[in-house]
From TrEMBL:
Organism phylogeny: Bacteria, Pseudomonadati, Verrucomicrobiota, Verrucomicrobiia, Verrucomicrobiales
Biological-process GO terms, alphabetical: xenobiotic detoxification by transmembrane export across the plasma membrane
Protein name from the UniProt record: Guanidinium exporter
A single cellular component GO annotation: plasma membrane
Example of a GO MF term: transmembrane transporter activity
Listed InterPro entries: EmrE-like, Small_drug/metabolite_transptr, Small_multidrug_res
Transmembrane segments: 27-47, 59-78, 84-103
Source species of the chain: Prosthecobacter fusiformis
């Protein structure tokens, strides 16, 4: 169950990271409230996952999911650069996530 919490925490991290773009520096009410709610939700889910997962593994996987997902959304929806080196770096983060999961013992 901890890995499910961690996956959901990572997905909500992606959502709040993208939501930050729409807050316009926390000057727009509704996008700011939604983003704040997503941040709280993500942290609560992460805290549930860390009840049983090692903190180093859980935190690294959470940030990795957020980083990869946010980078991909930036490429697909915000026309951010999709250079070969950038895609290789995203792939390396994915390899790290899989490696941490495989060696976590949970």
């Amino acid at each position: 169950m901890a890995w499910i919490y961690l996956l959901l925490a990572g997905l909500t991290e992606i959502a709040w990271a993208v939501g930050l773009k729409y807050t316009h520096g926390w000057t727009r009410l509704w996008p700011s409230l939604i983003t704040a709610g997503l941040i709280i939700t993500s942290l609560l889910l992460l805290s549930h996952a860390l009840k049983t997962l090692p903190v180093g593994t859980g935190y690294a996987v959470w940030t990795g999911i957020g980083a990869v997902g946010t980078a991909i959304i930036g490429i697909v929806f915000f026309d951010e650069p999709r250079t070969a080196m950038r895609l290789v770096c995203i792939g390396l983060i994915l390899v790290g996530i899989v490696g941490l999961k495989a060696t976590s013992g949970h």
